[in-house]
Amino acid sequence: MSYDRAITVFSPDGHLFQVEYAMEAVRRGSTAVGVRGKDCVVVAVERRALAKLQDSRTIRKIVSVDDRSVLAFAGLTADARVLINKTRIEAQSYRLTCEDAPSVEYLARYIAQTQQRYTQRGGVRPFGIATLLAG
Fold it and tell me: Residues 108, 112, 113, 117: is their CA dihedral positive or negative?
């Protein structure tokens, strides 16, 4: 039996292979670092070697979520794009509903809930990214 096809199937030794594949994608991703100062935050991401046909301007590992918040990630860029778009929509929805910018804590909770939902739900796989949120 193939134990890596579904998220809800445990292997005989108790592993969820889809979760382990996602963690391995994060390990192989570029490093993201954040430093907090008294009145500033600095976020940096490691720049990896590119393929010959790849344009370096298309690689974005640090993105703006809202006017006040920035997200850096390590792992699969396609997974990050999905999570960033969901987070941006949630930030816009929060701004329209509450007439105030969402806090970093609110956005961090939203990202964590979304990643947990994708880990536990059938039919989707866990996100292969780790995020660093600053604001």
Answer: positive
Q: What is the spatial distance between Cα 105 and Cα 16, in angstroms, rounded to a whole number?
A: 29
Q: How far apart are CA 4 and CA 44, in angstroms?
A: 34
Q: What is the pLDDT of residues 14-48, one digit of tens each?
A: 777 777 777 777 778 788 889 999 998 899 888 77
> What H or E segment, with its residue span, contains residue 131?
strand 129-134
pTM for the structure as a whole:
0.80
Q: How far apart are CA 107 and CA 123, in angstroms?
A: 25
Pairing of strands 62-64, 41-45: unpaired
Active site residues: 31
- Residues 115-131: tens digit of each pLDDT: 888 887 777 778 888 89
CA pseudo-torsion sign 47, 53, 56, 58: negative
